[in-house]
Amino acid sequence: METPEEYRQRSLETWNTMAAGWERRRAKMDRVTTPIRESLVRALAPEPGDTVLEVAAGPGDMTFAVAPLLGESGRVISTDFSPEMVEVARRRGAELGIVNVEHRVMDAESLELETHSVDGTVCRFGYMLMPDPPAALAETRRVLRRGGRLALAVWRGPEHNPWVAIVGRILTERGLMPPPEPGAPGMFTMASDERTSELLEEAGFGDVRIEDVPVLFVWSDVDDYVGTASDTGGMFANAWAAASEEEREELKHAFAEAFAPFAVDDGYALPGLALVAVAS
Q: Suppose 106 and one of 79, 82, 199, 219 were both cysteines; which one would form an S-S bond, judging by CB atoms 3.0 to 4.6 Å apart?
């Protein structure tokens, strides 16, 4: 089993590599996850003048949804541990002309911020992938002012997310992806109300509220899926790169068979379900 430090280094290398793909696919991924973004903004309820921290910001979609709500006197501190991802977000902010954002390279498990210095924190699909979620949540609690809120999103279990679970199962069965190790970071490690609530409460949060937010991933064909997943999914990209041409053709055939129940007139539509939690 990897040590936490080995995982951190591998994860950093992966996300630096994936940053360009996320920049290419940003618009599509943002459209798909719009219901989650809107739910997080409602849960966070930012007000003009607030200072909001985004943890694991990636391309910064949450940052740019929140920043206009804060007015000239408010600001977003948009952070990610990947320098390449921070640059993606910085470029997007410049394109949008948003000036009340500070982009910083920062590890969520060791935030370089003063205690009680932010009014709210938002994190979309970050804590579940961190080697030490309790440490990251404790740091989030430390930097929040009294009464400040954390709004986070993670994925529900694989039975609710065939858009990723189907392909993960096929790759694992064919030996191209390792099976998940118990307790290791992953997409479904915070899938239950009980686990997410437990982590939040252990970090010092109270008044935890949870809701489910459905989304729909649409691809025109299997090649569209493979292209998107190669650009945005680190584990998929590594597995696909390791596969031979013959294996890739076999995989695409297996994907098409598995996606058949989700066929629509213009391709495939696979559902997803996120858990959105707010705590203070």
A: 79
